[in-house]
Amino acid sequence: MMSGGYTSIDNQKVSGSVPVDSGLQTFPPSGVQGKISGGTLPPSDADDSFSRPAGGSSSGSDEPQASGWLHKFTVAAYKPYFDVDTTDVLDRLKESLYPFRGTFTEKTATNPDLYGPFWICTTLIFVAASIGTFVTYVAHKLRDKEWNYDINLVTWSAGVFYGYVTVVPLVLYVILKYFSAPSGLVQLFCLYGYSLFIFIPALCLSVVPLEIFRWIIAAVAGFMSATFVALNLKAHITSAGERWVLIVAGIFLLQLGLAVVLKLYLFTVSV
């Protein structure tokens, strides 16, 4: 009987058949894919929108894709310019505080952002209005004079900062295109936006009630901002021919002019 049982098992081995009631199962189950099999898919709610290349789109996206000039009026057209995190913004802010390096445009060439410039301008408006109001209030109280809040300080600051980082890059874009040294428009917005960051601490230091100190602060901030913009555009503008010196000098002086305007209207307290 033992030999018969052995012969039966041996026949099953040779034939490769498995008894129906053997209780053996395939492992892993065919309908389950785990980490070992390498077939795991991300959860259905995983957001990969910020991991796509700039301007790219997912094939499974349900968002309608506009074509031609209509694409400029969609959120997706401007989404890549806000695809930065806190580390990127902080690195670019630090870079703006070292104007003599002239490497800002190289580091942001592949990923210029508009988030930083918007944040900087908005912060400048808030700081200019709050610091200017506080300094004026203290100056009036020290001389026992009546003080009234000037709402025009907010609207004036908004017009100056938002207007400057919008109009100047647009004009410079046209000029560089005319001299056959075109630069990316968003890259210019990014450069000019970050160039204004130095004025945030400068405005905070303007609370010191010394006129000569305020002039020094405005001059240092203006010089650093102007140098930052001029040196970062110098390497690019040299391709415009012999007139590149005039263009760089104009950029530098225009940025200094902004510092003078800020000193006269924001750093100066009149009672």
UniProtKB/TrEMBL annotation:
Compartments reported by the entry: Golgi apparatus membrane; Membrane
Domain Yip1: 102-261
Bias type Polar residues, positions: 1-15
Spans through the membrane: 117-139, 159-176, 188-209, 215-233, 245-266
Keywords (A to Z) from UniProt: Membrane, Transmembrane, Transmembrane helix
Keyword hit for Ribosomal protein: no
Disordered: annotated span: 1-65
InterPro entries noted in UniProt: Yip1_dom, Yip5/YIPF1/YIPF2
GO cellular component: Golgi membrane
Gene Ontology biological process: vesicle-mediated transport
Pfam families: Yip1 (PF04893)
Name used for this protein in its record: Protein YIP
Organism: Gossypium arboreum (Tree cotton)
